[in-house]
Amino acid sequence: MPKMKIVLDSTCDIPREWIKQLDIAISPLHIVWPNGDQEDDTRDLEKIQDFYKRVSTAKELPKSSQPSVGEFVSLYREIQKDGYEQILVICISTKLSGTYDSALSAAKEVKIPVFVIDSKLASAAVSLPARRARELEKEGLSAQKIVELLEQDIKNGRYKAIFYVSNFDFLVKGGRVSRMQGFFGSLLNVHVGLWIDPEGKLVPFEKARGTKRAQEMLVNKALSLVPKGSKVRLLMVDADARESTRVLLEMLKQHYEVLDVGFTEMGKVITTHVGPGTAGFGLEVVG
Hints:
alpha/beta, Rossmann fold, Hypothetical Protein Tm841, Chain: A,domain 3, 2 domains, six-stranded mixed sheet, four-stranded parallel sheet, 40% helix, 26% strand, globular
């Protein structure tokens, strides 16, 4: 069986321990501040927590940029030098970033076979098909077959990404809601529920006042997509709101047979778009 490396972009918000366990390489997106300063998205916990503080007090939000074709080419060549014979790349939804296009273009410039998948997901949910890929590999499946099954899983809705945003200011500054909506949202302590739809688009689905109602809102959304009693695997994700994800997990356990669960932090790029205080989960339907 040819030796395969899995590449994820940094918006996957993967748990740090999974990087080694699943033999993952991360291609970082970049943060660009209004003054021109740039920094990489990273899975380093101290750097992520420091970013939460800086972005919370920033008068102007930074922008994010995808990895260049050249950056992907360099990464692929480095992986080949390390003795790998093929590469599987799983990217954030093409509806949210051009990262997939960079990864695909770079694949045409290297000799090593590279398979690129549009996850049609975002944040921690992208890490779930990566884990699935390794499990299928252990079953003896070829890279081509793994790609086919993952794409079928994605099409069939095996993976879900559901979360809420707490700080309207980030949606306002990002041009996602009007200033007036943002003003009232902040006043009323409104949380906006968001999910990634089957096409890979980020879609608001409901508003809730207060954290408890926001948590209930997410659980109800999950139940509308995945029947009660289903076997699921969960990856809880937050931007400086870990207690909320712990509560969310206990609520989800009341409705689903949770086979396993992990916790992870939203990185710099995802946090730039949704803001600290965001909480949610990636869900994988099993069987």
